[in-house]
Each structure stands twice: as structure tokens, then as C-alpha cells.
Amino acid sequence: MQNECVRCDILLRGGTVYDGTGAPGRYADIAILDDRIVAIGELAECEAGTVVNLEKLCVAPAFIDIHTHSDFSLLHHPEQLSMLYQGVGTQVVGNCGLGVAHTDASPRFQQEQRWLKPYGVEVDWNSFDEHLKRLESLGVGTNVLFLCAHGTLRKKVMGFDQRTPDSAELKAMKREIALCMEAGAWGLSTGLEYVPGCYAQTPELIELAQVAAQYGGFYATHLRSEGDQLIESVAEAIQIAERAELPLQLSHHKAEGQRNWGKVQQTLQMVSDALQRGVDVMLDMYPYTAYQTSLAVACLPSWVLEGEPKEVIERLRTVSTRQRILQEMRARHEDWEGVVIGSVPGNRALQGLSVAQAAAEARQSPEEFILDLLMQEGLFVGVACFQLSEADVRTVLRYPRTMIGSDGVGYDPQKMGAERPHPRSYGTFPRVLSRYVREESVLTIEDAIFRMTGLPAARLKLPDRGVLQVGAYADIVVFDFAQIADRATFRDPHQLSEGIIHLLLNGRWVLRDAQFTGTRAGKVLKRI
């Protein structure tokens, strides 16, 4: 550590510094000049414009959320309050093969537009590059890195066709990925459980991943199955990364459904085996036992989701097809008490009810209720499924290549309060520190901070973020370890976390004394 400083803008004095490398905390001062850290150590002689006493507080690199979907909110909520109050300074967006930057104003992107239009956002960009430039001109509350989203670009090239692309279409998708990477994307993401990404077969994915590899990108994947075919899906992901010769990120790793609990022991061994062969594999997870997705994806047989939304709705409406769907749904013997309705823009009164409760009130079977609700809402219904194992959460969290990713969206609790998101959008990082470090000692504090900072920075190849060292950008979070806690719940999700005292990004105050300064200090970071 350097311990000499003549002058600085901000001097953070006397905190316990966790530098993001996994090293134990140590008392130190940190000097910031412009947007960089210029000294760390005992800096009693340093002249500073502002001196802040951090006695009894923890100091760490601002957290890096490796997996978010905040590209769906950045244009109407650039401040990203729910993320800032978790201590998040950098977000990776465009995950799960879903990407706002690839959309256009055509009807094939009506689902994406339904996320944006209620907040006054019209799709008026025509390329990935244009979208990034628009965000740069707007200003963003956190640093943001974009992935190239396979499902969205496949829709752009092939629509909802369930088939192998012809040579011209494959060439067009490769060109689209190349343009994204040249514009600054950090890799390629897939969502192989969602239409139309699920229509891509392994050879297509290998060829497309090879393009990202040529630019030094990585491959992040929402697996083809996170339940019954989890093992086979992890094997496919490793095969794609190995054949395309690029790093692999397994998104929000988990095993859905009680019959699949414990499979993560095998998948983590598969990761370890791949590492032994030289494949660079990492994974991320969020610390909850429920996942959130669309009601249609969670509850309908996969064949029902084929094609455009209007085709899916027509299947739900056609009597003979509807009976087949109901029969298959009933054969699964789903626990409808454990499926809780999330956002329903057309019927907010249903939000927070289990499917079992809502169906009983409607005097319908759960299966009939689901089909009718999906038709009424044009498939636009979110749902939380309480189908994950706490033991699995701990197992994945302990694995040394696991980092933290919220799978959330940056929310404004006032402007966006009518929505019913998963509490992970508000509480992921404080929840790890409070529950799994302070209360249950699943991780040490220095290891947990490493999973939130140095490890994702290594995946992203960001040498000057995710660590506290001289020359690094001054992305710094200060928190009270005794008080840090998530407050958001599934019943009441719009609750900002507690215990984040200060947050600086690029040397500028974003949170000071737990108050938002109004400053959009983030940057659109580009891999160029």
C-alpha cells in the first residue's frame, strides 16, 4: 500500500478496508483525487478538500452485479435507486438472451415494448451502438456493461421461427454479434429456456459464441433447463464454451423443483472437472429460495410457447388445444400455493396472491385460472416460484467460483411502486452480508466481498475496478456491518436496504450519509 499523499479531493479516514482480493480487513485511510484512488494507508499528513471519518465502518470496492436486467429500466429510471442502496456500483445487463439494446419499433418486439411504454419510453434507436450512446447522453446512476443478447437478435433476424437458421440468417446473426462487440459489448448471453432462444441448437450456439470469442468476450447462459434436465444443460453450456474457446458464466445457478434438489453437487463437480481441462467457468447466484419468471414459462407446457405471442394466445383459446394443455398441466401436480403472482399490469389486485388463492376466489381450477389470466393479460404476467432448496443455495454460495448476481432490475420505489418484483432487486447484496456472513457464517466477510467485487472484476477483465488499490477508479462503498440488512420481501418488495452509509462512483458522491445525492456518476463501460 502507498502511504504518501500530498493533496486529495476526498480523504476517507479510519475505516476497515476490505480491498476486494479476499484479504482480511485492515485499518487504513483512502485518498481520492478526481476519479481515482491515489493513496491507501496512514495518511495523516494528506491535505484533503473533504475528510470523512469512517471509524467502525467497513470500506470495500463498490459491488459489481454480474447479472441484472436493468436495461429494461435505465431509460426511465437512470438513477437505479434499488441498486445504489445495495452498494452496487456496476451492473452487467443484457442477460438471459434478452436485450433492450437490440430491439426496434416493430411488432415482433411487443413484449419488450410493454416493459418500456408504460414509463414513457419509445424505441427510437436502430442499433446496439445507438442505444449505448443514448444512455451515455442521458447519464446513468451506476456503471453499466452490456452483453449481446442472443434471443433478441435471433428474433430480429428470424422472428419466432422454430428451426435451424439458413446460411444467410446465421451470417446475419454473426454480423449482429460482431457489431455489438465492436460497439463495446462484453460477451454473448443466451436464454435457452425462452422463446426464441430455446429454438437454437448447440451447433448454432457454438458458431455464434466463436464470434464473441474473437473479440475477447465471454459466454453467459441461462441454461436450457434449471430443473429436470439441469445436468444435461450444464454439459451443453460447457461444451459450447470449450468448443468456442471462451470463458463461461453459468447464470443464477440453481436446481428447480424438490425432485431436483441436490443436483448442484453434481453440476459443481462438472464445473471443477471442466476447470481441470482448462475451461474458464464461473457462476453466479442470488440468495433466495424462490425464482421469478413469466407465468407462461413457469406453468405452460413448452410446446404451447412456440411462435409469436398471438399464436400462444390462440392455443389457449382453441377448445381442443386448451383441453390438451389443461390435461398436461394437471398431470404435473404442481403446488399452486408455492406459485405467487407477481406483476399483473391489468389487474394489480391479484399481485401477491398465490395461484391457489386467486383461483379459489375466481371459483376456477388453478389451471383454468392461469390460462384465462394469460389470455386477459396478453401473457404479460410475472410469477414467483418457491421451488428452491436452502441447502442448495448454501452449497452454490460456498463454491469458490461463485459470485453474486441479483437477476434483478433497478427500481424506483415511488415511480415503479405498482410493480411487484422479486425482492432480489432491492436486497441481494445486503442479504448475503447480513444473513450468510454476519448471522450464519456461511462465508467470511472478506470472501463475500471478494465474490461481489474482485471475482466479477476478474471475469470482466476490469483491472481498475472491483479492487481498492492505488490507480483504481474510486468506486467505493462504505457500510455498517452491524446494521446492513435487506428489507424487501415478496409481500412488500419496494423497501430499500439498510446499512449502506456512503457510495462513491468514479470519485463522486452518489450516496452520502445514506442519502441519494442526485448525481448520476456511472459510466457506460465498453470493451474496446
Kindly describe this structure:
The protein has 528 residues and is of the alpha/beta class. It has two domains: 63-289 and 387-457, Metal-dependent hydrolases (TIM Barrel, Alpha-Beta Barrel), CATH 3.20.20; 293-385, no CATH class. 33% of the residues lie in helices and 19% in strands. It contains 17 helices and 21 strands. The chain has helices at 81-84, 110-116, 128-138, 150-158, 167-183, 202-214, 230-244, 263-276, 295-299, 309-317, 319-331, 355-362, 366-376, 390-398, 424-439, 445-452, 454-460; strands spanning 7-17, 26-33, 36-41, 47-53, 58-61, 63-65, 88-93, 143-146, 148-149, 187-191, 218-222, 248-250, 281-285, 291-294, 339-341, 382-385, 402-404, 476-479, 500-505, 508-512, 515-516. The strands form four sheets. Strands 1, 2, 3, 4, 5, 18, 19, 20 and 21 form a nine-stranded mixed beta sheet that branches. β1 (7-17) and β2 form a beta hairpin. α12 crosses α13 and α15 (424-439) packs antiparallel against α16. The two termini are 30 Å apart. The mean pLDDT is 96.
